[in-house]
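Hi C.,

You asked whether I'd gotten around to modeling the 222-residue construct. I have! Everything is below, sequence then structure, no commentary in between.
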Amino acid sequence: MATTSGFAELPLYRKLALGGAVLLFIDLFLPWLSISVDELDISASANAWDSGLGTFIGILLIVLIAWEVLRLTGNAPEFGVKHDVVTAALAGVIALLTLLLFFDVLGDTGIGAWLGLLLLIVLGYVAYMAFAAGGWEAVTEADLAGPAAAPTAGQTEAHATPEPSAPSVPPVATAPPAATAPPAETMDEPPESSYAAPDTLDTDTAPERRLDDPHGEQPPTI
């Protein structure tokens, strides 16, 4: 009962995915190839399971039906992508292969091939809607996370394994610097005297005085 109510709440493309896959699986047992010769009153037909391509389509349909049932019951495994992307991929591949099978029997087409053509259109619509629901969002998230997820050069260097370094040599003890002597005090030089020494005496103008004559008189010459 819970599964039935859950199926009623599904979006349209998921209902078509499960229903279309079941109908196409049944359609594979119908005549896809029909040959008749009126003159000889001979007729022959073959279903899709008689060809290798039809058998491969049937296997993919089983996978799609099982996948949608698991999604409906909440037991679908996680593949790292959204579930709608898986549905879109399966439905798209089945629709493409069914189209190839239809062209393969074209000319002697049976009723099963015509029904298959209608059902592949349904599955093509499912693939488009499922990808639009989850695929574009996944692509957008991947584009946004790509630059952030890429490690930068600084992060790469930070996580790189450090190379072993050479053993360190202990520093050599150095003698403390010698104490410098305080600067010697310099004695102030006496200021230069402003007195200027007189120029040399002019012997022509200054009379020569004798030491024994205090008055400067010259003795008479004999």
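If it helps when you're writing up: Residues 200-208 have pLDDT under 50 and may be disordered.

Thanks,
B.
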